[in-house]
């Protein structure tokens, strides 16, 4: 299972083996981690938690769509 976040300031930097992927979008990045982000990462990169699971899981897609719809 993976942890999914959105970086709202688009400045997330890879930090070792915890990062599985980063997808750069206009105005935000989708970040896939193998472990939960630390509070420092959440604050520094302005991460918004989408959920734990696979990208295609309904709850993660709903959270992502809710986030994109707010922009």
Task: Give a quick set of tags describing it.
single chain, 71 residues, alpha+beta, four-stranded antiparallel β-sheet, globular
Your description of this structure?
The protein is of the alpha+beta class and 71 residues long. It contains two helices and four strands, in the order E-E-E-H-E-H. The protein has helices at 39-45, 58-70, and strands at residues 2-7, 19-25, 28-33, 47-53. It has a four-stranded antiparallel β-sheet. A hairpin with a 2-residue loop joins strand 2 (19-25) and strand 3. The longest helix has 13 residues, at 58-70. 18% of the residues are buried.
- Order of SSEs: EEEHEH
- Major sheet: order of its strands? 2-3-1-4
Question: How much is the radius of gyration in Å?
Answer: 11 Å
Q: What is the terminal separation in angstroms?
A: 28 Å
On the 0 to 100 scale, the average pLDDT is 85
Global geometry? globular
Strand content: 35-45%
Structural class given helices, strands, pairing?
alpha+beta
- Counting DSSP H or I runs of 4 or more residues, the number of helices is 2
> What's the count of strands?
4
Q: Unreliable runs, pLDDT <50, ≥5 residues? A: none
Specify the biggest β-sheet. 4 strands, antiparallel
Helix percentage range? 25-40%
